[in-house]
Write a structure and sequence with these properties.
It is built from twelve helices and eleven strands. It is an alpha/beta fold. The strands form three sheets. The chain has a seven-stranded mixed beta sheet with strand order 5-4-3-6-7-9-8, sandwiched between helices. Strands 1-2 form a two-stranded antiparallel ribbon. The radius of gyration is 23 Å and the shape is globular.
Length: 397
């Protein structure tokens, strides 16, 4: 197969139109996925020169490795294979030579998905110690992908959530977490309120809740998502982490695109929060602007929204929307008053490997992340220790 390497979301036939494609094209699509993922499963850190689908260049090899390590693209490939198997089975004999197609698709899907596709997968996460010597241990369940809706990938724990949870435990003061009950209540006169957008399995929100609970802080943590199966799994994880009732952690459905400006049926989303967090929640071009509308209603005047996103080579445009929709302080027009802007941003790299394939630990790679701290800022709030509106702080590694 001699073609340019592109991500599965670009290369594979649309799921909704699989029935219109001849079996030869579907077989070619499966062969393409073999090129992307099968060598990695066999333990190769990089494909040999003779197996590259196109010209042998460093740029080509780099693109291949980037796509292989992109969890978002791998999840889409799994969903596509699942849909293909379902479609072929439902067509009875309309697909000629479908038996081999089914075998190839099923074999590749089991390799790509591992435990994530077989069923639920429970993992133990350990973070710390914090600046106060605290350690957090959580047991969370990842749910199988919903074959009918790609948005169900939120039922899996992604790398950005692990990185952000680690950042919070190691440096809780950077996220304005109260150190005691008195420091939380005396200032605000009410519980310290935390909101997680796109909570997924709840790793980040539950990490914060665990820390605050250990410190005896009076708090409320609201973990939100949208997809029904994600919310079901999220509630299961919350119940496991906080089995006692009443619990300070609550799970709510929040659709950013439809978040009302003046009213929400749940009163918990009618009061501002002292801390809002989000990990890997910007992967469509409209996400940043939808999130901004939510923050206008939900972010308290002195609070910050902490956002961490992986810089995927396949989703550069989507990642760039953060700085497009949230300006730096120096870009806020004079006299406009406070607006939502980036108080601090930085980029850093982390080692990454798959928890579903233990062999990948022997060939870890680097993933680059962008971290943003966003709050209500006006031009007079500019700190002298800034450059182009971005605060200079030590790198988080």
């Amino acid at each position: 197969m001699n073609e340019t390497i592109v991500p599965p979301t670009t290369r594979l036939p649309p799921i909704s139109k699989l029935h219109t494609y001849p079996i030869a094209e579907l077989q070619d699509a499966i062969k393409y996925l073999h090129v992307l993922y099968l060598p990695e499963v066999r333990g190769s850190s990089r494909m040999s020169n003779r197996t590259l689908p196109s010209q042998n260049t460093d740029n080509h090899s780099s693109a291949l490795e980037n796509i292989r390590m992109d969890s978002f693209e791998r999840a889409y490939a799994i969903r596509w294979l699942t849909a293909l198997i379902s479609r072929v089975n439902s067509e009875e004999s309309s697909f000629v030579d479908s038996e081999q197609l089914l075998q190839d698709a099923a074999s590749l899907m089991s390799i790509c998905a591992g435990a994530a596709e077989v069923g639920t997968f429970t993992r133990v996460f350990k973070f710390g110690p914090s600046t106060l010597g605290e350690e957090v241990t959580l047991q969370l369940t990842d749910a199988p992908l919903d074959n009918d809706d790609f948005s169900s990938v939120g039922a899996l724990t992604w790398g950005a959530a692990c990185v952000m949870a680690e950042m919070i435990v190691e440096s809780p003061d950077d996220f304005s977490l109260p150190r005691s009950l008195s420091s939380a209540v005396n200032v605000r006169g009410r519980p310290f309120r935390v909101l997680e957008l796109g909570a997924g399995t709840g790793l980040v929100g539950l990490t914060i809740a665990d820390l605050l609970n250990r410190r005896g802080v009076d708090f409320k943590a609201i973990l939100t998502d949208f997809h029904p199966s994600v919310l079901t799994n999220l509630r299961r994880n919350v119940d496991a982490a906080f089995p006692a009732t009443p619990t300070p952690v609550k799970v709510l459905c929040l659709d950013w695109s439809a978040f009302p400006l003046d009213f929400h049926p749940d009163l918990e989303l009618c009061t501002p929060f002292e801390l809002i967090i989000g990990a890997d929640i910007v992967y469509e071009e409209k996400h940043a602007v939808w999130i901004k509308e939510c923050l206008k209603k939900l972010l308290a005047p002195e609070a910050f929204f902490h956002l961490l996103i992986p810089l995927r080579s396949t989703h550069i445009a989507e990642s760039n929307t953060v700085e497009k929709d949230f300006p730096h302080p120096s870009d806020i027009p004079t006299g406009c008053g406070k607006g939502l802007a980036i108080a601090h941003s930085e980029q850093f790299k982390c080692e990454a490997y798959s928890d579903y394939d233990p062999r990948s630990r022997e060939r870890w790679t680097e993933i680059e992340y962008a971290y943003f701290r966003i709050g209500w800022i006006s031009p007079p709030d500019l700190n002298p220790a800034t450059t182009n509106g971005t605060e200079i702080l030590p790198q988080v590694m």
